[in-house]
Amino acid sequence: MPLFGVTGGIGMGKSVTAGILEGLGIPVVDTDVLARVEVEPGAPALDEIRMVFGSDVFDSNGRLDRIRMAALVFSDPAARSRLEEILHPRIALRWRSSAALWRQRNESGAVIIPLLFEKGYENEFDAVACVACGPETQRRRLRERGWDALQIDARKAAQLPVGEKIHRSRFVIWTEGSLGSHRRQWEQILSRPLFRNTG
């Protein structure tokens, strides 16, 4: 059974995809969720983050201030690279562990990785799907999160252009339409003979 890598631009529907796939019986690991786990109080990565970035990115309770950290790393590529060097190997260890278990059980599974191509993970999956929408829809969704134009542009600049991700993916899930349309696109992919469990 196939292992899917799911990627796409920020605000294009990856989290919605996770819920849809889980509803279709496909286990999902979302690396954004894993990233939050890695910076919870007591996590080893926090000590390393403090050593590299200092205590300015922590709040008065000793928790990582995610807003302050995001402002730093999305305005400074070198800082973003240092943070990724701390977190990404730990995150990859977690999702690879889940993927190995799925393969051992001959189960399908999906790993949602925003930087899948940027980190060179594509060859670890049987198929890669890109979740995408138009730029105006993307900006509207991100504005609804409370982000301003500078925040949006900084985060988009940290990823490959969506057109490149689409070009390099086997499947494209277009999320401009309804939730039902999004789900039906996945149902069509999963109904292909290659992806059905015929055992």
Description of the molecule:
- The protein is of the alpha/beta class.
- The chain has one domain (3-40, 90-195): 3-Layer(aba) Sandwich (Rossmann fold), CATH 3.40.50.
- The chain has 9 helices and 5 strands, in the order βαβααααββαααβα.
- The protein starts with a strand and ends in a 9-residue tail after the last helix.
- The mean pLDDT is 93.
Quick synopsis:
With 199 residues, the protein is α/β, with parallel strands linked by helices. 51% of the residues lie in helices and 12% in strands.
CATH homologous superfamily grouping: P-loop containing nucleotide triphosphate hydrolases
Instruction: Using the 3D structure, state the CATH architecture.
Output: 3-Layer(aba) Sandwich
**Low-pLDDT regions:** none
Radius of gyration, in Å, reads 18 Å
CATH classification, class level: Alpha Beta
Which strand order spans the largest sheet, edge to edge or round the barrel? 2-3-1-4-5
Quaternary status of these chains? single chain
What is the terminal separation in angstroms?
10 Å
From the spread of the alpha carbons, the general shape counts as globular
Tell me the helix content.
40-55%
CATH fold title: Rossmann fold
Question: What is the succession of H and E elements?
Answer: EHEHHHHEEHHHEH
- Beta-strand share of residues: 5-15%
What's the structural domain tally? Answer: 1
Number of helices: 9
| Global mean pLDDT | 93
Number of E-type strands: 5
Biggest β-sheet strands, sense, barrel: 5 strands, parallel
Class from secondary-structure proportions = alpha/beta
